[in-house]
Predict the structure.
Amino acid sequence: FSAVHQFLFNAISTKIGFNGEYSRSLNYANINESEINDTESSSSTVGLSLKSAFPSWFNYRLRTKWVSNNFKFEPSEINQTSLETNLRFLFRPVKEIKISIDNIFAKLKTDTSAPVQQYFLDFRISYIPLKSRVEFYAQGGNVLGNKRFVRITSSPISQSTQTINTYPSYFVVGGNYNLK
């Protein structure tokens, strides 16, 4: 089952979106010539998104997703939940300057491992002179200096941990020229 709905809420100049998914399955497995094992699995996902369209110098975008997975098999059960939130702030104090700040928060919890919380922060400041083809910018990534991103996946017969090494904190100054 899956459902998605989006609408514009004019009173606060914001586009609001909801999505939800649910699935359930029953599997039969014969592992290592043992008796047939019944495995019941279910997965739920709930998401919310907000995107502003203010006619001013400030806007934002928020996306959050909560996921719950459950595996039941004799004699045990595995539960896994995760929450991921992306928040972007967009500022335009004057017509020539754009500022964006991106914040990502992720929390993962399983029955078989310690909870994992991760925060990431990036930014970009752009200067585009009026009626110009040139852009100058300063940009920073992984400002909080996280060394890795961790993702844990569980199933009735295994648990895998995926660790992705991230770039160290960086700061870049540059420019672009538009040929149009």
User: Anything to note?
Assistant: The mean pLDDT is 87. Residues 148 and 165 are 4 Å apart (CA to CA). The chain has no helices and eleven strands.
